[in-house]
Amino acid sequence: MTKEKNKIYSISDLAQRFDITTRTIRFYESEGLLAPKREGQKRLYSQKDYTTLKLILRGKRLGWSLAESRDLIQMYKPEQNNQAQYQKVLEKVVDSRERLQQQMNDIQIMLLELDEHEARVKEVLETKS
Amino acid sequence: MTKEKNKIYSISDLAQRFDITTRTIRFYESEGLLAPKREGQKRLYSQKDYTTLKLILRGKRLGWSLAESRDLIQMYKPEQNNQAQYQKVLEKVVDSRERLQQQMNDIQIMLLELDEHEARVKEVLETKS
DNA sequence: TATTACGTTGACGTAAACGTCAACTTGGTT
DNA sequence: AACCAAGTTGACGTTTACGTCAACGTAATA
Questions:
Q1: B110 to A63: CB separation less than 8 angstroms, yes or no
Q2: Do residues B63 and A62 make contact, with C-beta atoms less than 8 angstroms apart?
Q3: Comparing C-alpha atoms, which of A23, A101, A31 is closest to residue A66?
Q4: Helix, strand, coil % over all residues of chain B, rounded to 5
Q5: What is the pLDDT of residues B18-46, one digit of tens each?
Q6: Nearest to A61 among B93, B103, B117 (CB)
Q7: What is the bridge-based pairing of β-strands B42-44 and A42-44?
Q8: How far is B126 from B122, CA to CA, in rounded Å?
């Protein structure tokens, strides 16, 4: 049984939940990152759209461009693809993973430097008192 | 004995080593991230400047703004600071660490999703053949 | 001495990622 | 019927992080 969360969100609803503006959400759509259903003029966001938006914002926190996130989103789409397409997807998976691992590496270095600096500062504070 | 690497770099030297343009390096200086010595007009970059630049580029790979990196660089400076200043530094350490841990978290989620998707795609490829 | 390599300071241009109006619809509520 | 809240589509403005000239200085080299 697939997750039966057929919840529908309005644009301002999503904006509140993710603490972004409706302008931002519309902008993401204009950039091809979202494609909500419509009810007349009004946009209706599904659970999938919700998940996509979460992915976008995760990407943003990691400094990924919208174009990169869009590629990732495309990659996740279960399209009627041929063998060649699937191979490309697998390559993109590898690339993304490499990028993420580079970032992990950078983070660990920065964390180490923070630790060292904190220790130094604390030592100064103690010897002063 | 402190690391006796008194190497001096020219701007184009640094540009080559880090695969960025000299324009970029000068821009970082204008934004207060670097402050190389001068020999007449020409900029001379020390080992410390080199390290600072490395920090900036690490920050960039993690999506940090130049302003944020500048703050981090400031934080690392051993200034003639008073108690209050040191306390602020410690707070900034905590903040930076939290940010980095959030990013670690995001990365792990993305890596998991990549693994799952890769498995799905590979399965399709196998059952097809 | 003339050229070339490397550097400098403006000044303006640009792409990405939105913010900020303005001028509408539209579907309920007083 | 009048109004308000929530939504819509332009269109233009803004910030960040550089790119891209242009015009010039300086030092070594042919």
A1: no
A2: yes
A3: A31
A4: 70, 5, 25
A5: 999 999 999 999 999 999 999 999 999 99
A6: B103
A7: unpaired
A8: 6
Which 35-64 residues of chain B approach strand D with CB closer than 7 Å?
40-41, 60
Taken in order A20, A92, A31, A48, is the CA torsion positive or negative? negative
A12 touches strand D (CB under 7 A): yes
Nearest-CA distance B9 → chain A (Å): 24
At residue A82 the predicted structure's pLDDT band, cuts being 50, 70 and 90, is confident
CA distance A9 to B126: 38
Q: Following DSSP, what letter does each residue of B10-71 receive, concatenated?
A: -HHHHHHHHT--HHHHHHHHHTTS---EEETTEEEB-HHHHHHHHHHHHHHHTT--HHHHHH
Q: What is the mean pLDDT of residues A48-67?
A: 98
Put simply, the answer to whether A83 touches B125 (Cβ < 8 Å) is yes
Contact A117 B64 (CB under 8 A): no
How far, in Å, CA of B103 to CA of B62, rounded? 8
Q: Which amino acid is at B106?
A: D
Of the pLDDT bands very low, low, confident and very high (cuts 50, 70, 90), residue A80 is low
Nearest CA-CA distance, residue A68 and chain B, Å: 13
Does the pLDDT of residue A129 top 70, yes or no? Answer: no
